[in-house]
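Slide 14.
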Amino acid sequence: MKGEIEAMTQSGQPTYLIMLGAPGAGKGTQARLIEESLGIPQVATGDLFRYNLSKETELGLLAKSYMEKGVLVPDDVTVRMVEDRLSRPDCAAGAILDGFPRNLDQAAALDELLAKYNQKVSRAIYIRVEREDLIARLTGRRVCKSCQAAFHVIFNPPATEGVCDQCDGELYQRADDSRDTVEKRLEVYFEQTAPLIEFYKDKGVLVEIDGGLPIDQVQDEIIRAIREN
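Slide 15: predicted structure.
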């Protein structure tokens, strides 16, 4: 299958994929698997910010100036980071955008950016997971206080509840995994990012995937959708 997909990406136009889905839907996991199958890089905005900040690039320093003031980094700075990343040789055949765009303004800016090079978004992959399932996924993580090993009460439970398999340390729930925090994260997502689903549906590039399926089945559905592009 990998050979078939690589041949597709070499057939002409670069492949630009947008990963959509709420926190906990599995976007990052699927993006990494698609990266392996397609041979095009995952471009995650979190990684872009960490890279530019650590390297103290012009964009990194600009972003830092906003962050130090306690205000959001403007969309145009984020867009410029994405443009810089997409201009690199490893993105010649396209990229998998994970965490960008986050809102309609960023989506419009991405369209303008790609249009400059006579390109466009190939597919927007929306991994759909029910809200209560998202909450269960996000609140189920447990971390060892001693060795920092990670577990999940549903998907990767320890042999003994509350005890680390690796060092017998105590497991705990991080503050950002509490239900209140998770619900606030989901609220922000559905307010700011969910409208992108309709945006890409109107453009005819949205593919909706049942994120409740096993990881390998979700991957198969995504690959099938990409091949049909």
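Speaker note: The beta strands are 15-20, 42-44, 94-98, 123-128, 141-144, 150-152, 171-172, 206-210.
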